DNA sequence: CATGGTTGGG
C-alpha cells in the first residue's frame, strides 16, 4: 500500500477505471460496434504515451469513424465477449517508441501481447506487465528494453510463449527463480540476455517441464554441473535447443542433454567450449534432424553411433579438431547440409558422399582429405548447390572434357585445391553461379572469355594466385550486374587494363603484368568502387581525372607501377598508396577533401614542394604518413603535431631543413598503447585490407597485423638542424626513432630513458656531442642502437645489454671510450669477461644480425597486441568470406614471419609462447604449411 | 507455430 501511494497517478487511474466498470454494460453492441468503450479509452490513453513516428497506429483514434477499436491495426477482440484479447504491435517495419502506459492493465483479458522489435530507448520492462494475468503469449524481444528483467513476469502463470531476447546483453537476469513459476511455458527465448549471475539457470530450465523450444544463445551462461539424475525432471517435450555462444563445457552440457528422452530434434551447441570426444550417447537422440557442434574444441573421430539415421538432415562439425576418416555409416542419406570444414579429417570422403542424393551444401574446407574427384562422385548429387572443397591440398579432379554435371551450383569454392593446369571447362554448364573461387589452384591457362557471361548472378570471382596469362578482352557489355568482388591478383595477365565492372565494390588486379595507361577506367561512372588495387603492374601515364568521381573509394592502391605526372583530383576515404611510381609536382590540394584518410603512402616518387601545413589540420584520423624518398624541402610544419592518431611518420630521404618541432609530444598515439582511430578502423573490417611498408632497420617490410603496434618516426637523411627536443622523449610507446644522417647537434636528452619501448634507435651521422646519457642503458628493448659518427665523448654506460649491441654502434666518435669499444677509458682496468662481452670487436655473426631485425621487445609486444586484436576481429571474419580470406592471407604471412623469428630467437619465452601460438593456430585455422617446431 | 532487427540466427 505504501508503494501504491508513492505513485498517486496509479491511484487516480484505478479509481477512474473502477467508476467506468460499474457504470457500463460490458457485453452487447451498439450500432454494430463490438469494441468495449472502456477498453477503447484505455487503448487511446496507452497510445498517448507511445511515439508512433511511422503511423503504425493511425487507425487508432477517437473520431466517430474510428469507434470500432476491434478493427484497429494490431487489435483482436474475442468473438463472444468482445474483450480485446490480442495486441500485436511488433515494430518490424515501423518501430514504436515512447513509454508503455499502465493503461495497458485495463485490457484485462489480454492473452497475446507482442511488443517486439520496437524501440523503447533503454527503458526498463514495466513491472505491471506481470499483472496481465491472462497472458499466454508475451514477446518483448529486441525492443531496446534494458536492465533487470522484472521478476513480476513470474506471475504470468498461463504464459506459454515468452520472448525476451535482447541486443548485446542489454537485459539481464541475475536470478531466474521467477522463471520457474511459469509452468505452462512451451517456448522460451532469452537469447543475448546476460545471465552471467544466474547460476540456477539449469535447475530453472529443468522445472519447465512443458518446454518445447529453448533459445539461450549468447547469454554468458555460467558453467554449472548438471543436476544429479535423481533430481532430474527434465521436459520430455523439448525438441529445439539453442545454446550457441556460451562457453559451456562438455561436462556441463552433454550429461544434461542426454537425459532428455529421444525427442530432441534440433541441437545448436556452436561456439562453446565443448572439449574431448563427441559422446557416443549422441546416438540415443533418435529424432535428431539438426546438429551443430561447430566452433568448439572437440577431438577424436566422429562416433559411429551418429551413423546412418534417417532423420539427420543438417550436420555442422566445423572448426573443431576432429580426426580420422569420415565413415560411410555416418553419412546419412537424408543429409542436406554437411559441414566438416576446419578439422583434421583425412582419407577419402568423397565416394560415400556420392550417395547422399539429397545433399545441397557440402563444406570440407581445410582438412586433409585425399582424393581424386571424378564425375562418378557427383552422379547422384542433383540437388547440390554449394561445394566448398577449399584447402584440401590432397584433393584433385579428373573430369572428362565434356562433362555435364547433374547439378547447378551457386557457390564453387576450390581455393587451394589442385584444379589446374587447365581451367575447369565443366564450369561452363553452371549458369546460376554467384560465387566462384578457384584461387591458388594451380591453373596455368588463358582466361576463358565465356566466364564473363556465364551467370547473370555472379557476385564474387576470385582467380588470384594462379598462372593465368594473356590479354583480357573487353567484355564489359556482358558483365553480371551483380559483381561485388573481382580478384585477379597474382597472375600473369598482360596487355592493357580491361574495362572493369562499374558496380563492383572490390577490384584487385594487383601483381600482374598489365601495362600502359589506365584511361579506360573512366569509361563508366564507377561510383560503387570501394577498393581498387592495381599495384605491382607495369602501368604508366598520368592518373585519369575520374578518380575524383569515385565517391565511395576507400582504398586506392597504385603502388609499384610507373605512373607519372601530377597527382590531382583524388577522393579517397581511408587508404592511399601511391608509393614507388614517378609522380611529380606537389601534394595535391584535392587531398584536403579527403579528411578521413588513415593511410597515406607517397614514398619513392619525385614529389616536391613544401610539406603542406594544412595536412596537420585536415587528416584528423591519420595513422600512417610516409613521404619517404621524394624531393620535399622546407621545414616540418608544427601543425603536423595535431595528428594525434599518427603511428608512423616517415619523411626520410628528402631535403627537409630546419629544426624538429618541439610539439611532437602531441602525437598521442605514440604515447598510448592502443590507438583509438586504428582500433576503430580495425573493428570496422577496413583494417583487414590494410598493410603498409615500413623501413625497419634498413629493411623494407610489409606490416599487416603488427602495424597496429608500430610506432615509428623516421626523419633520416635530411638537412635537419638543432637538437633533439626533449619533448620527443615523452612518446613512450615509440618503437623506432631514426634521426640519422642530418645535421643535428647538441647533447642527447637525459630523458631518453623514458622511451622504454624503443627497439630501434639510430642517431648516427649527426653532430651530437657530450656523453651518452646513462639512461640509454635502461632501454632494455633496444635491438639496434647506432650512435656512430657523432662527437660523443666520455665513457659508454657499462651495461651488458648495450655492449652486446656491438662496437659499430659507437664507432666514429673519437672521444668515446669503454666497452664494447676497444678503447679503455683513462683509469679503467681492462677487465673483460669473455662470457659477457662476447665478440668485442664489433663483428657480429650473421645469425645474430638477423635476430635483431625485429627485437624481442617488439616481438613480445606484438604478442600482447595479437591477443587483444585478434579476438576482436576474428568473430566477424569467420562468417564473411571475403574478410575471412583476406584475413587468412594476412594471418599466414604474419605467422610465417613469427616462425622465422622464433626459429632464430634465443629467448626462453620461446617454448611457452610457441605452444600458445600453435594451440591458437590449430584451433582456428587448421591449415597447411605449419612449420616444424624447434626443440 | 512464432527468424527479424539499429544484431547472428552460426
UniProtKB/TrEMBL annotation:
Signal peptide: 1-24
Subcellular location field: Cell membrane
Pfam families, sorted: LRR_1 (PF00560), LRR_8 (PF13855), LRRNT_2 (PF08263)
A GO CC term assigned to this protein in UniProt: plasma membrane
Family according to the record: Belongs to the RLP family.
Name of the protein in its database record: Disease resistance family protein/LRR family protein
InterPro entries: Leu-rich_rpt, Leu-rich_rpt_typical-subtyp, LRR_dom_sf, LRR_N_plant-typ, RLP23-like
Keywords annotated in UniProt: Cell membrane, Glycoprotein, Leucine-rich repeat, Membrane, Repeat, Signal, Transmembrane, Transmembrane helix
Stretches assigned to the Leucine-rich repeat-containing N-terminal plant-type domain: 37-78
Biological process annotations from GO: defense response; response to other organism
UniProt key word Ion transport: no
Membrane-protein topology: Single-pass type I membrane protein
Transmembrane segments: 858-879
Organism, scientific name: Forsythia ovata
PANTHER family per UniProt: LRR RECEPTOR-LIKE KINASE, LRR RECEPTOR-LIKE SERINE_THREONINE-PROTEIN KINASE FLS2
Amino acid at each position: 500500500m505504501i508503494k501504491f501511494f508513492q505513485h498517486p497517478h496509479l491511484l487516480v487511474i484505478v479509481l477512474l477505471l473502477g467508476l467506468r466498470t460499474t457504470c457500463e454494460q460490458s457485453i452487447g453492441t451498439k450500432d454494430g460496434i463490438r469494441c468495449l468503450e472502456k477498453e477503447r479509452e484505455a487503448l487511446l490513453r496507452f497510445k498517448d504515451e507511445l511515439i508512433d513516428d511511422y503511423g503504425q497506429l493511425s487507425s487508432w483514434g477517437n473520431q466517430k469513424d474510428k469507434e470500432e477499436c476491434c478493427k484497429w491495426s494490431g487489435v483482436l477482440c474475442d468473438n463472444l465477449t468482445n474483450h480485446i484479447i490480442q495486441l500485436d504491435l511488433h515494430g518490424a517495419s515501423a518501430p514504436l517508441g515512447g513509454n508503455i502506459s499502465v493503461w495497458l492493465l485495463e485490457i484485462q483479458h489480454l492473452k497475446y501481447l507482442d511488443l517486439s522489435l520496437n524501440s523503447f530507448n533503454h527503458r526498463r520492462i514495466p513491472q505491471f506487465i506481470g499483472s496481465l494475468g491472462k497472458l499466454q503469449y508475451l514477446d518483448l524481444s529486441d525492443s531496446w528494453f534494458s536492465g533487470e528483467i522484472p521478476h513480476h513476469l513470474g506471475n504470468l502463470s498461463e504464459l506459454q510463449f515468452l520472448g525476451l531476447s535482447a541486443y548485446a546483453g542489454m537485459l539481464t537476469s541475475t536470478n531466474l527463480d521467477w522463471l520457474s513459476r511459469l509452468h505452462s511455458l512451451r517456448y522460451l527465448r532469452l537469447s543475448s540476455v546476460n545471465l552471467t549471475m544466474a547460476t540456477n539457470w539449469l535447475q530453472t530450465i529443468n522445472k519447465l517441464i512443458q518446454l518445447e523450444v529453448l533459445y539461450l544463445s549468447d547469454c554468458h551462461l555460467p558453467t554449472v554441473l548438471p543436476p544429479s539424475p535423481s533430481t532430474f525432471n527434465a521436459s520430455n517435450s523439448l525438441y529445439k535447443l539453442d545454446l550457441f555462444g556460451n562457453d559451456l563445457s562438455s561436462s556441463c552440457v552433454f550429461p544434461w542433454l542426454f537425459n532428455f528422452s529421444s525427442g530432441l530434434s534440433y541441437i545448436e551447441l556452436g561456439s562453446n567450449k565443448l572439449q574431448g570426444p563427441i559422446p557416443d550417447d549422441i546416438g540415443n537422440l533418435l529424432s535428431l534432424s539438426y546438429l551443430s557442434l561447430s566452433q568448439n574444441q572437440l577431438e577424436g573421430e566422429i562416433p559411429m553411433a551418429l551413423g546412418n539415421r534417417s532423420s539427420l538432415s543438417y550436420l555442422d562439425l566445423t572448426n573443431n579438431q576432429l580426426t580420422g576418416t569420415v565413415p560411410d555409416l555416418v553419412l546419412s542419406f537424408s543429409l542436406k547440409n554437411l559441414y566438416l570444414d576446419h578439422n583434421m579429417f583425412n582419407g577419402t570422403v568423397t565416394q560415400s558422399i556420392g550417395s547422399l542424393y539429397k545433399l545441397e551444401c557440402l563444406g570440407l574446407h581445410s582438412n586433409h582429405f585425399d582424393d581424386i574427384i571424378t564425375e562418378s562422385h557427383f552422379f547422384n548429387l542433383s540437388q547440390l548447390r554449394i561445394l566448398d572443397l577449399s584447402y584440401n591440398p590432397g584433393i584433385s579432379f579428373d573430369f572428362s572434357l565434356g562433362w555435364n554435371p547433374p547439378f547447378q551450383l551457386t557457390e564453387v569454392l576450390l581455393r587451394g585445391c589442385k584444379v589446374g593446369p587447365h581451367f575447369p571447362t565443366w564450369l561452363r554448364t553452371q549458369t546460376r553461379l554467384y560465387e566462384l573461387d578457384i584461387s591458388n589452384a594451380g591453373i596455368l591457362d588463358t582466361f576463358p572469355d565465356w566466364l564473363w557471361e556465364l551467370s547473370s548472378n555472379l557476385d564474387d570471382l576470385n582467380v588470384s594466385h594462379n598462372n593465368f596469362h594473356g590479354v583480357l578482352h573487353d567484355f564489359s557489355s556482358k558483365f553480371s550486374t551483380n559483381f561485388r568482388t573481382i580478384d585477379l591478383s597474382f597472375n600473369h595477365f598482360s596487355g592493357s587494363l580491361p574495362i572493369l565492372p562499374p558496380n563492383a565494390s572490390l577490384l584487385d588486379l594487383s601483381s600482374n603484368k598489365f601495362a600502359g595507361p589506365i584511361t579506360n577506367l573512366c569509361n563508366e561512372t564507377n561510383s560503387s568502387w570501394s577498393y581498387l588495387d592495381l599495384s605491382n603492374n607495369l602501368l604508366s601515364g598520368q592518373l585519369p581525372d575520374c578518380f575524383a568521381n569515385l565517391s565511395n573509394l576507400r582504398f586506392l592502391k597504385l603502388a609499384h607501377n610507373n605512373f607519372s605526372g601530377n597527382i590531382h583530383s583524388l577522393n579517397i576515404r581511408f587508404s592511399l598508396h601511391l608509393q614507388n611510381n614517378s609522380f611529380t609536382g606537389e601534394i595535391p590540394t584535392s587531398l584536403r577533401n579527403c579528411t578521413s584518410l588513415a593511410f597515406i603512402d607517397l614514398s619513392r616518387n619525385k614529389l616536391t614542394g613544401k610539406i603542406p601545413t594544412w595536412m596537420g589540420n585536415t587528416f584528423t584520423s591519420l595513422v600512417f604518413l610516409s613521404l619517404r624518398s621524394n624531393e620535399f624541402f622546407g621545414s616540418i610544419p608544427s601543425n603536423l603535431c595535431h595528428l594525434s592518431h599518427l603511428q608512423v611518420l616517415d619523411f626520410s630521404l628528402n631535403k627537409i631543413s630546419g629544426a624538429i618541432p618541439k610539439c611532437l609530444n602531441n602525437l598521442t598515439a605514440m604515447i598510448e598503447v592502443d590507438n583509438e582511430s586504428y582500433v576503430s578502423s580495425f573493428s570496422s573490417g577496413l583494417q583487414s585490407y590494410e598493410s603498409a611498408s615500413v623501413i625497419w632497420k634498413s629493411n623494407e617490410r610489409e606490416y599487416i597485423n603488427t602495424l597496429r603496434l608500430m610506432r615509428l618516426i623516421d626523419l633520416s637523411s635530411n638537412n635537419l638542424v638543432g637538437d633533439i627536443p626533449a619533448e620527443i622523449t615523452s612518446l613512450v610507446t615509440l618503437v623506432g626513432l631514426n634521426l640519422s644522417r642530418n645535421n643535428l647537434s647538441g647533447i642527447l636528452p637525459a630523458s631518453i630513458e623514458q622511451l622504454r619501448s624503443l627497439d630501434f634507435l639510430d642517431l648516427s651521422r649527426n653532430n651530437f656531442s657530450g656523453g651518452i646519457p646513462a639512461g640509454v642503458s635502461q632501454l632494455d628493448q633496444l635491438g639496434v642502437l647506432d650512435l656512430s659518427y657523432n662527437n660523443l665523448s666520455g665513457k659508454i654506460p657499462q651495461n651488458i645489454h648495450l655492449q652486446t649491441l656491438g662496437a659499430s654502434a659507437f664507432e666514429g666518435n673519437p672521444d668515446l671510450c669503454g666497452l664494447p669499444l676497444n678503447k679503455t677509458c683513462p683509469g679503467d682496468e681492462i677487465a673483460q669477461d669473455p662470457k659477457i662481452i662476447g665478440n668485442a670487436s664489433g663483428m657480429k655473426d650473421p645469425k645474430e644480425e638477423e635476430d635483431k631485425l625485429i627485437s624481442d621487445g617488439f616481438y613480445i609486444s606484438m604478442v600482447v597486441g595479437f591477443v587483444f586484436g585478434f579476438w576482436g576481429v576474428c568473430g566477424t571474419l569467420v562468417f564473411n568470406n571475403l574478410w575471412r580470406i583476406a584475413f587468412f592471407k594476412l594471418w599466414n604471412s604474419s605467422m610465417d614471419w613469427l616462425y622465422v623469428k622464433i626459429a632464430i630467437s634465443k629467448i626462453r619465452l620461446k617454448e611457452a609462447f610457441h605452444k600458445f601460438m600453435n594451440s591458437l593456430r590449430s584451433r582456428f585455422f587448421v591449415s597447411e604449411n605449419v612449420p616444424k617446431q624447434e626443440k
